[in-house]
Amino acid sequence: MLVSELFATRSRAGLRFAAEAPAAAVQDYIEILKPRVMSLVVFTGFVGLVVAPGHIHPLIAAVAVLCIAVGAGASGAINMWYDRDIDAVMRRTRARPLPAGRMAPGEALGFGVVLAVGSVVMMGLAVNTLAAGLLALTIAFYVFVYTMWLKRRTPQNIVIGGAAGAFPPMIGWAAATGHIGWGAVALFAIIFFWTPPHFWALSLYRAGDYEAAGVPMLPVIAGPRETKRQMLLYTLVLWPVTLMPWFFGIAGPIYGVTAAMLSLVFTGTAVRVCRDPTDKSARQMFVFSLLYLFLIFCFALVDRVAGGGW
Predict the structure, then answer these.
(1) What distance in Å separates the CA atoms of residue 297 and residue 295, rounded to the nearest whole number?
(2) Is pLDDT at 15 greater than 80 in this prediction?
């Protein structure tokens, strides 16, 4: 039940937030964790844990993956708390719990902070301090470096800030081994170089939203043509980068051949985007980019289980 109908104006978005919002539903708490983003983060972290050399007790492995998931959710919650003003302006985000008034900002912030601290402490106590330190670094990087500093200031926001999404396989590797190997660096690099073309494909057909919200995404600042050129270049860089796990011995020929074929298709989608003046190809590339990363890590996992790795 609504306790108060007094509203205050927040920022240029002109959004009115309830002074005392109604009690948020369970679904709202789940939504601010960004479960779709979390699922990919958890999967890449799990792959990093499995393909790492050595062995880890299944229970410890489960705790490590759970901590990665909770830490990712905490980052999403704090991100939604901070970005509630621009989320209210953008069509694809205005229905989120905070801009829609279904959750008070303090609830989201408190929920995110508790989850963040809890995930790091649990990782440190149950797994190892290196994995806990990397998890803490990931959360801090996403919240302070990407969300609060880069996102609203530079068109390179997703290039630098994308490192936050690249840490999970490294965390999984550290959880399994207690150190960071070249294999972990290779998995990090794949996600790092995949992130810009993935998000720029989205921002191409959502450029109006980002411009209205004042977020300097590359299509808004440099225009579609330059964005498409850089997307194509990043897909070309992914060719040697995705072969690094094979080079470092954490994956075998099954992975290598598959990664090369997937990268060829990914570059093909970028070429189509460059030639297409409409948003259709950009939408298709965005969807395929998700499948691309999933399959790259999936085949790394299959190759490891099949004995093609360490």
Answers:
(1) 5
(2) no
CB 87 within 8 Å of CB 94: yes
Residue 245: what residue type? P
Q: Which of 68, 30, 22, 19 is nearest to 47 (CA)?
A: 68
Residues 60-83: tens digit of each pLDDT: 999 999 999 999 999 999 999 999
Q: CB-side exposure of 279: number of CA atoms within 13 Å?
A: 10
Q: Is the sign of the CA dihedral 138, 144, 148, 150 positive or negative?
A: negative
Contact 280, 271 (CB under 8 A): no
Contact present, 19 and 7 (Cβ < 8 Å): yes
Contact (CB, 8 A) for 87 and 17: no
Which of 216, 220, 73, 96 has its CA nearest to residue 152? 216
> Could you give the CA distance from residue 112 to residue 51 in angstroms, rounded to a whole number?
30
State pTM to two decimals: 0.91
Beta-bridge partners for 18: 7
State which H helix or E strand residue 134 sits in.
Answer: helix 129-140
Rounded CA-CA distance 50/32 in Å is 28
Which are the contacts of 116, defined by CB distance < 8 A and separation ≥ 6?
71, 74, 75, 78, 139
Is residue 242 pLDDT above 80, yes or no? yes
DSSP state of 25: P
Q: Is 234 exposed, middle or buried, given 0-12, 13-18 or 19+ CB atoms closer than 10 A?
A: buried
Decide the pairing of beta strands 15-18 and 7-10.
antiparallel
